[in-house]
Specification:
It contains twelve helices and nine strands. By secondary structure, the chain is α/β, with parallel strands linked by helices.
């Protein structure tokens, strides 16, 4: 994990904390430029290829990475487990080395964070974590870009996350810490984000003026927030706990009453897919304060910037 003082050009993007505050800001700046000038980087990586391995189902991640790669002139090669020898016992390191011989970057959406780390250690080309059970760093890039677009800054912005302390929260904590934000997380006992991730985010926050707060009461987290965020209560792999999760997390639904505790200009965020009537009321996600569609669109923009910076090494350092 990088520190605020570290100035090492990252080869891979396995979690948000791989970046420094300056690198995160540069990446967001480039994403904003790419959004403002959509034709400015067309074919800038012509002739390059990116392998996109998806062990989990995906809508936004799969399409946004394919679109981002195509916008850069790259050839996105989308792969499923049944199309690779991984499913027949080939070691991850062997697959990584082989893919690196054909492609200029590897994007991985899978279960274990350790699998992505093993692939990154073996591959000489950049490896991107497109989601693991521990982190969802590409989603966090889109999240903070959306917040910056709405409020013109990130430093001092209060973002409240309500619900299950999952991989989305882990990446939000790291992104908020690097950006000098106030991150407040409200989860029921047993559903809080991992202690080691929280501790690491607080270490980053100490150098940037950010703050990390954990609550049991969602009202305490949301009060005065600029942005209110939630995610599904039953993620992939949690189906056996569905009834227990729905019962435990029910008091953490983001409805109009809870959102009213935030600032009048507050926005609502959700990484999608959403389950109206569970983690969020339909009146909130479909209401005037919802920024979820801008947030979803920003996945493509930030991933385009990320691929460009990783493949070219263009972090400006």
């Amino acid at each position: 994990m990088a520190t605020a003082e570290t100035r090492v050009t990252p080869k891979d993007f396995l979690r948000v904390a791989d970046l420094t505050p300056d690198q995160l800001e540069r990446l967001l700046d480039l994403a904003a430029e790419m959004e403002d000038e959509p034709d400015g980087w067309i074919d800038s990586l012509r002739g390059r290829s990116v392998a996109c391995y998806f062990a989990k189902p995906s809508t936004r991640t799969r399409v946004s990475f394919a679109a981002a790669a195509a916008r850069l002139g790259m050839n996105p090669i989308v792969l499923r487990p049944d199309e690779l020898q991984l499913g027949r016992g080939e070691p991850i390191a062997d697959t990584a080395r082989a893919l690196a011989g054909y492609c200029d970057a590897i994007v991985v959406r899978t279960y274990a964070q350790s699998d992505i780390e093993e692939m990154a250690a073996a591959a000489p080309v950049p490896v991107v974590n497109a989601l693991s059970d521990d982190h969802h760093p590409c989603q966090a890039l889109a999240d903070v870009l959306t917040v910056r677009e709405w409020f013109g800054r990130l430093a001092g912005i209060r973002l409240a996350y309500v619900g299950d302390g999952n991989n989305v929260v882990h990446s939000l904590l790291e992104a908020g810490a690097l950006a000098g934000m106030e991150i407040a997380v409200a989860s029921p006992p047993g559903y809080a984000p991992r202690e080691d991730v929280v501790a690491g985010a607080r270490e980053l926050a100490a150098a940037t003026g950010a703050s990390i707060e954990l609550f049991d009461d969602p009202r305490e987290a949301v009060r005065g927030a600029h942005a209110v965020y939630t995610d599904v209560w039953v993620s992939m792999g949690d189906d056996a706990e569905r009834e227990e999760r729905l019962r435990t997390l029910r008091p953490y639904q983001v409805d109009e009453e809870l959102l009213a505790l935030a600032r009048p200009e507050a926005i609502f965020l959700h990484c999608l897919p959403a389950h109206r009537g569970e983690e969020v009321a339909a009146a909130v996600i479909d209401g005037p304060q919802s920024a979820v569609w801008e947030q979803a669109a920003n996945r493509e923009t930030t991933e385009e910037a990320l691929l460009y910076m990783l493949v070219t090494g263009g972090w400006g350092e």
